Amino acid sequence: MRTAIIVDDERLARRELRAMLEESHGAAVRVVGEAESVRTAAELVRTCDVDVVFLDVQLGGESGLELLTLIDPSVAVVFVTAFDQYAVRAFEVNALDYLLKPVAPARLKRAIERLGMPNDDDASRVVAARLDNHDRLYLRLDDRMGFVKVADIVAIVSGGDYSIVRLATGRTHRARKSLRDWLARLPENAFARVHRSTIVNLEHVDRVEEWSHSSYRLYLRGSGEPVTMSRRYAGQLKR
After folding, report:
1. What is the extent of the structural domain holding 218?
2. Among the three residues 98, 124, 150, which one is the final residue of a domain in this structure?
3. Beta strand segments in the chain, E
4. Does the pLDDT at position 118 exceed 50?
5. Other Cβ atoms within 10 Å of 217 Cβ, number
6. Residues 93 and 26 in one domain
């Protein structure tokens, strides 16, 4: 059984969601508390051994997203929000699912089913819309959360369990996303894989030079170090 709290600044909304959980999903989820602010929610997560948070994105004068910087990344998050799916797609924060207000019983049931598969990444991952260059991602970067404009991403390099995101500002960050995950979300007409460990934003490519018979070098604006592109990926990029 999962231990959960409900975070919403509207008392009626908390009461309705709690009733739905207790009446229909009491065997899977036990609600141990409610909070209307980020500070109270963070304290409940710490003191009640919470592993699931049903989180409203808008909490009066503060953002529910601020809670994500205060709790362990292993805590599952289910967004409960009035935002539509196109706004929610920016919240790349290991969210298990999102529920649109008013919460539909069938969608709540689906979210609860996902809670029963915590170790199955493919089964529990939310199917999100492909991004475009105008979108912003809300990512865990290094040890904090922050927004990143898709257009500002210059390159993404695999770093084992992490990926290294290079931005147009010259800064680099670690993100908990694989290259496969990135390729599934990034705009297809702007980003391309040029090496088994590297994705580049074509808008930031200054020039391409043949380096040897089997590879090329891509020079990115604002970066002195070129990126190696194998002939295999060069062929795909040309096509």
Report:
1. 136-238
2. 124
3. 2-7, 29-35, 52-56, 58-59, 62-63, 76-81, 95-100, 136-141, 144-149, 153-159, 162-167, 172-175, 191-195, 198-201, 205-212, 215-220, 227-230
4. no
5. 16
6. yes
> 10 lies in a domain?
yes
Question: Structure tokens of 158?
Answer: 């695999």
* Long-range pairs, 123-129, Cβ under 8 A, ≥24: 124/96, 126/95, 126/96, 126/97, 126/98, 128/89, 128/92, 128/185, 129/85, 129/86, 129/89
Determine, yes or no, domain membership for 131. no
Same domain, 104 and 43: yes
pLDDT digits (tens, 9 = 90+) for 2-35: 999 999 999 999 999 999 999 999 999 999 999 9
pTM (2 d.p.): 0.64
In-domain check, residue 65: yes
Same-domain pairing of 227 and 116: no
Same domain, 152 and 114: no
CA dist 81 to 19, 42, 70, 121, 178, Å?
Answer: 18, 19, 20, 23, 27
CA quadruple 69, 75, 80, 84: dihedral positive or negative? positive
Q: Which CATH number fits the domain that encloses residue 194? A: 2.40.50.1020
Cα separation, 42 vs 211, whole angstroms: 53
